[in-house]
Amino acid sequence: MPARKPSFTMKELTKGNQRKLKALQNGLGDDIGLEAFDKWYKRTQATPVDKNAQALIDAVEKLGPKIKIPRQGYVLKRWKGRVTINPAS
Fold this sequence. Notes:
This protein is of the alpha+beta class. It has one domain (8-89). It is built from three helices and two strands; from the N terminus they run H-H-H-E-E. The chain has helices spanning 15-28, 30-45, 51-63, and strands at residues 74-79, 82-87. Strands 1-2 form a two-stranded antiparallel sheet. A hairpin with a 2-residue loop joins strand 1 and strand 2 (82-87). Helix 1 packs antiparallel against helix 2. The longest helix has 16 residues, at 30-45. It is elongated.
């Protein structure tokens, strides 16, 4: 049975990913190692959503053009049950 085409190219892999692929191919064989790496690579490429960051994005988007955010941005600090927002310096 011919091996299916992987969902990645060798150029887009980092050096660590290339080493992992080579180790799997040496340990499990070329076809099985490639298939195992492909499954792992697909699973790790899904970016998890940060719920806190998404809540901040939603809150700021509701304000629309009313708000001006400087390039440096702001620093949010949470302490003693309070949240302070200060311009970043």
